[in-house]
Every structure is written in C-alpha cells, then in structure tokens.
Amino acid sequence: MTYIEHSREPLRPVVDTPALLDECLESLRGARGPVAFDTERAHGHRYWPKAYLLQIRREGSGTWLIDPIAFENGRPRADLSSLVEACGSATWIIHAATQDLPCMQEIGIVPPRIFDTELAARLLAKPGASLGALLEAELGIKLRKAHSADNWSKRPLPESWLDYAALDVDYLLELSSTIATHLVLAGREEWSAQENDEMLARFGVEPEPKQDQWRRLSGLTSLRTPLQYAVARELWLARDDVAQRRDRPPSWILHDSAIMAVAQLARDEVPSDDDVRGLAGFASQPGRRYAHNWLAALERVRKMSPKQYPPKRVRATGVPHPRSWEKSNPEAAARWAAVRPVVDELACDLGGLQASLIAPPAVLHQALYYHAEVSHELLVELGARPWQADFLAPAIAEALGQA
C-alpha cells in the first residue's frame, strides 16, 4: 500500500483570472482522452450548494484547480461552459456524480457523457464504493483525506486544502480505466453506460422547485392544530428568507427546535411577542438578531383566516407505500408479496447487487400497484433502464405465474 500525501505534480496557481483560464482551456484542448473532474462545495457552511472549487485533469494537461467564484462577475453563478467546449467529445470521469452534476449544471458544465466510478463499483457489487476504498483496492493507493467537511467558500484557500483537492482527481483516470475493464469482463459495460446516460439526463438540467419544504421541519408531526402548522410554516419561510440572503445554513439562523417551541405554544392563539422573546431560541443570538423577522411572521399568521392555514397533512399523490396496499389495493399487495422476494433473490444471483439497482423502487411500486401484467415495455416506460427490464420482466412474470 502506497500512502499519498501530495499531488504527484507541483500545484499550479489557482485559475482565478481570464488569462489563467485561457491558459487552462488551451492546455485542455491540446490534451487527449477522458477528463477527470471533481468539485468542492461548502455544505454545512453556506445556504446555496454551489461549487467553490473545480478540479479538472486530462492526460497531457495535468491537473488544474479553478475558482468559479472569481468568474461570477456580479452574477449569481459563473458561466464555465468553455471547459466543456475545450474538452470536445471526451467522457468526463466523476466519482459520485449525483453530488457534483447539480452544481456543475449551474455554471454551464454539462458534459456530453460521463462515467461515474462510484456507480460502476456498485454495479460490480464492490464491497467499498467510496473513492478512498476503490483506490486502495484497485490501485494500492491510500490518499490523505482531511478537508472534505471544511468551508470551501473561504478565501484564500490554504495550500494544504488545494493539495487535498488535487488528490481527488490525481488518480481518477487510472481508476476509471481499471473499473471499466472490470465492467467489460463482467459483461456489465452496457449497464454502466445506460445508468450514466440516465444520471446525466436527470441531474444535468435545472431541477424543479420543491414544494412545501417547510414540512421537513424536525418535530412537525408533534403539532396538533392547523394554527400550529401555520405558525411553523411562516417562521420557516422567514428563516429561509434570511438564510438565502445571508447565504448561511438555516440552522445557523434559527434552529428547528426554536420554531417548534413557538408552534407548540400556538394551541388556541398566536403567542405574544413577549412569549416568543422569552424562549431560549430567541433570547440569545442568532435568534435575537432577527427578532423583527420572527415577529412579522407571527403577525402574518394573526391576520390569516383559518381557511389560509395549511392542512396538517397533504393529500398524497402517486403510489402509496407498499405497507398500505393491503387496505387500498389488495390485489397489488398480493403481487408485491410475490415479487419482492424474487427481486431480492435476483439481486443476490447477480453477485450481491443492491436490490434497488436492479429494481428502482419507484418503478417497481408503480408497475405492481397499477398493472396486473408487467411487460418489458411497461417497465422501460415507467423509467427502468433496458438492462434492468431485461432481468425484471421475466422474473416478475414468473413470480406472478404468467411466464
């Protein structure tokens, strides 16, 4: 085992000027082969999940570290689509691409194709799919990992952090080549290609806004009345507004427990301003700093009619969880009972794959809840990849006695 503490090449200056970006782009254009790529975010330190450092490497060009914030020029996000143009039709190698693709899309980086080394490892049923585990198992390399949870929005970034960041792509090209060979030998190369195409299509576009995010408040189900839910919602919205403007995690602005404490008091009427100021979460910083925002939120609730209060529960849409099928759809429950062990056995027969890899739950639930017969075409229409449907369709038909 070789222990690696530093990048195998001297670090270049961080690309943070147009001149350095032009130099990077020219180097990438003259390089060859796939592109190793990674991002560093500031999860837990900022509200917005954007990238604060990009790491890119290509054979013949070496590793470049790029500061996307330096290219925002007063805009919410930079436009670094030129990186994709410079690399042409090359495949981009990313580890755990679902984490990186959303913030890549925000700055115009949408590769023509990707290869996710983590996903490939899962398709091969590797015992460890993290980058560190794969580098150790496949290349005999152990990386120094020390800054993954640090605040990457900090400027300037310490040299030790940059060294750490460069290591994330230093051996990614070699690793992808080794993993790709394993896929070919296992006959699973096409599986990987279909999964990567689907992932890029799903995460390489701007996401739909999420509805009713306030309902994710910790402890919300302990509330009993619509008034309490109205108080919780308005305080959440007020907190989210402050968090967005300050670009800080909402829990730094006001903890969920503080919101719940006010909502719990609102059994018959909205708590008074003095009652709120006396609660622990509002009597000290940072809750006290934004007292005006919290009191304004409560005033909005006072002015609402009961018809404007949110319902305790939102009417469920889509397929319910299988545990409720016995009451809502007994025939579907019987199909689920017959198919579930067959899917688990199939995943085991394929080398110990996770069952969700061979049978995406959303697809399987929808197919069995609404359809007495499940065909290959139906599974693909519902979102299964063709390779999954190849296995699932005959297995489901056999389980339901339709083979």
List keywords for this structure.
single chain, alpha/beta, Nucleotidyltransferase, domain 5, DNA polymerase, domain 1, 5-stranded mixed beta sheet
Please work out how many helical segments DSSP would assign. 20
CATH superfamily of the largest domain: Ribonuclease H-like superfamily/Ribonuclease H
| Secondary-structure content class | alpha/beta
Level of helix content?
40-55%
Question: Termini distance?
Answer: 51 Å
% residues in beta strands: 5-15%
Tell me which CATH architecture of the largest domain applies here.
Answer: 2-Layer Sandwich
Rg, Å, rounded: 25 Å
Biggest sheet overview: 5 strands, mixed
Determine the mean pLDDT: 95
User: What is the approximate shape?
Assistant: flat
As for the CATH topology of the largest domain, it is Nucleotidyltransferase, domain 5
Poorly predicted segments: none
Description of the molecule:
By secondary structure, the chain is α/β, with parallel strands linked by helices. The protein is 50% helix and 9% strand. The chain folds into three domains: 2-203, Ribonuclease H-like superfamily/Ribonuclease H (Nucleotidyltransferase, domain 5, 2-Layer Sandwich); 213-308, Orthogonal Bundle (DNA polymerase, domain 1); 322-399, Orthogonal Bundle (DNA polymerase, domain 1), CATH 1.10.150.80. The model has no long low-confidence stretch (mean pLDDT 95). The two termini are 51 Å apart. The protein has a five-stranded mixed sheet, with helices on both faces. A hairpin with a 2-residue loop joins strand 3 (51-59) and strand 4 (62-66). The radius of gyration is 25 Å and the shape is flat. It has 20 helices and seven strands.
